[in-house]
């Protein structure tokens, strides 16, 4: 008898299959840069975290100009020093530092589109310092009906007025835009995009960062969403592989 597979495993299998296809989340033009934001890294010779969001933004912009890129990725699974505010103190006594999504750095106001048909489940403003800021979570389903979610953080605040829970989204539909500091959680302009296979009832508080001790559990729930960004090889967007 064939062993039963968990819903999360079935969703991962579908996402990795040739049957999966998605519309672009962001219309990326040109070859994007992949940044190293890992613990102990530097950006143009300056150590991270930068002393201010303004300087962090300047460094990212300068790195993109040097590479001739208008878009830059921050990697999934990367262990970082960037999460310095109080909410990143983990429940297990270890600070949360491992990134569970992909970052896409680009100009504030860049449109964000639904990659798949879905329904808006959560619209919220997580306004604490270095939190998500304006946040949207969209529910989707596999062809077999299994639910999963995409999470969009650091948005422009117009989404708080234009969207509400229960609104349907068509694949390819622009529904939000990249935000700017300080309203986006006080980060350089970028989209935090995260795949969520089970919300666990956490809603707007589903974490975007995990502790090292608990990272394997959270990776199972938020696997690398590189399949939504075929412009870059999945391995290049995997911060765990880069650290190995």
The spatial strand order of the largest sheet comes to 1-4-6-13-10-9-8-11
Helix and strand content put the structural class at alpha+beta
Distance between the termini: 38 Å
Low-confidence stretches: none
Beta-strand percent range = 25-35%
Please give the structural blueprint:
Elements: H1 7-15, E1 33-34, E2 42-43, E3 46-47, H2 53-67, E4 72-74, E5 96-99, E6 102-105, E7 111-113, E8 118-126, E9 133-141, E10 147-153, H3 159-162, E11 168-169, E12 174-177, E13 190-196, E14 209-211, H4 215-221, H5 239-243
Parallel strand pairs: 1-4
Antiparallel strand pairs: 2-3, 4-6, 5-14, 6-13, 7-12, 8-9, 8-11, 9-10, 10-13
Describe the structure.
It is built from five helices and 14 strands. It has helices spanning 7-15, 53-67, 159-162, 215-221, 239-243; strands at residues 33-34, 42-43, 46-47, 72-74, 96-99, 102-105, 111-113, 118-126, 133-141, 147-153, 168-169, 174-177, 190-196, 209-211. The N and C termini lie far apart (38 Å). The strands form four sheets. Strands 1-4-6-13-10-9-8-11 form an eight-stranded mixed sheet, with helices on one face. It has a two-stranded antiparallel ribbon with strand order 2-3. A two-stranded antiparallel sheet has the order 5-14. 39% of the residues are buried. The chain has 244 residues and is α+β, with helices and mostly antiparallel strands. The chain is globular and about 50 Å long. It is 16% helix and 25% strand.
